Amino acid sequence: RPAMVPSMASLLDGAAEYRPELSIPLHHAMSVPCEASPPGMGMSGTYTTLTPLQPLPPISAEGPAVGQSLSPLGNGLGPLPGAQQGLHGYGPPSHDKMLSPNFEAHAAMLARGEQHLAFWLRAAAPGAHPSLSSLVLFTKPCPGCCCHPAAAGALPSLPISHRWEMRSFLQEPARLCRASALTAGTPLIRAAPWSCLQSGDEALQCPCWGWLAGSVGTTLTLSLCLCRPFPACKRKEQEPNKERNNSQKKSRLVFTDLQRRTLFAIFKENKRPSKEMQMTISQQLGLELNTVSNFFMNARRRSLEKWQDDLSSGGSSSAPSTCTKA
DNA sequence: TTCCAGTCAATATG
DNA sequence: CATATTGACTGGAA
């Protein structure tokens, strides 16, 4: 058992393949160099910082906390009923509103300077559409993507705390994507509703995606890549109310790419996290404690099985490959 | 209570 | 459609 377990935040950063070459001023604690790796093989990064494990504060005093359910599915990732219409189901942006308590909680934490945005921003906007109560921001352009510098896109400069701008982007992606030219080398950030991110999404499979990590007040240059719908959103639009019908048929949970990467990153560091750690993980990832527990149990067993298989088949790998599989 | 091996079954893949 | 993968469940052992 490792003598010291890296912080949740640094593990999550590692899982998310943060890439430090972006021209965004970052807190040193965010540096998690990671070699370019093929899709889904991002576990080779090294962790450069160890910050104390401090779960993110609850996102909202009145709403669900990080990891708690925002949906009837109970995993915090799915849309609420009525959210199937994707990005267009609510009214115009409210630029006159103040930042929500949720965001301010994060802002206060970030402003301390010692903390950082681990791997996501959840911007709960009072009155906003439920499917947009969380945002996940990606950095880095995807070469094959329509918003790559070579392909043009929108590029306003915004402070990271400018939540309402982000929200308005999500509302009117097509127009914004045509709004201005994109210059080469500009940090590119992709925003997506959390509920739209699922295992297998194109965006998550791109090897050059990283995660936004920055301090509140940092000016980031934003560009969005929403000129086409996310695959998951498309699916939801095409299959409304399908889950309602055969409710007795149990579907197996499929981890999102983020959840899987994060879990494997943690597993790589600690094969047997404590109950408290598992609870933190479950809260951060919006998973049941049982699910997290099952994951580590299965992972321990299956990594061992894999290791034994590799040995018996004369493989040369020195570590269980399961850890890098996700 | 916790952990594990055995197993099932949903889902992914080719 | 066959096979592989994988999240979850079960019963027994410590």
Descriptive report:
One of its GO terms (molecular function) is DNA-binding transcription factor activity, RNA polymerase II-specific. Residues 246-306 form the Homeobox domain. Residues 248-307 bind DNA. Keywords: DNA-binding, Homeobox, Nucleus. This is ONEC2 protein. The structure is a single chain. The chain is mainly α. The protein has a domain at 274-303: Arc Repressor Mutant, subunit A. 30% of the residues lie in helices and 6% in strands. The chain has ten helices and five strands. The protein has helices at 8-15, 101-111, 163-171, 173-177, 202-205, 231-238, 242-245, 257-269, 275-285, 289-312; strands spanning 135-139, 157-159, 189-193, 210-211, 219-221. The strands form two sheets. It has a three-stranded antiparallel beta sheet, with no helix packed on it. The chain has a two-stranded antiparallel sheet with strand order 2-5. Helix 1 (8-15) packs across helix 8 and helix 9 (275-285) crosses helix 10 (289-312). It is globular, with a radius of gyration of 19 Å. The chain binds a DNA duplex (14 and 14 nucleotides) through residues 200, 249-255, 275, 290-291, 293-295, 297-298, 300-302.
Q: Could you give the order of the helices and strands? A: HHEEHHEHEEHHHHH
Average pLDDT metric: 40
| CATH superfamily descriptor of the domain at 274-303 | Homeodomain-like
Discrete helix count: 10
**N-C termini distance:** 23 Å
Subcellular location: Nucleus
DNA-binding region: 248-307
GO molecular function: DNA-binding transcription factor activity, RNA polymerase II-specific; RNA polymerase II cis-regulatory region sequence-specific DNA binding
GO cellular component, one term: nucleus
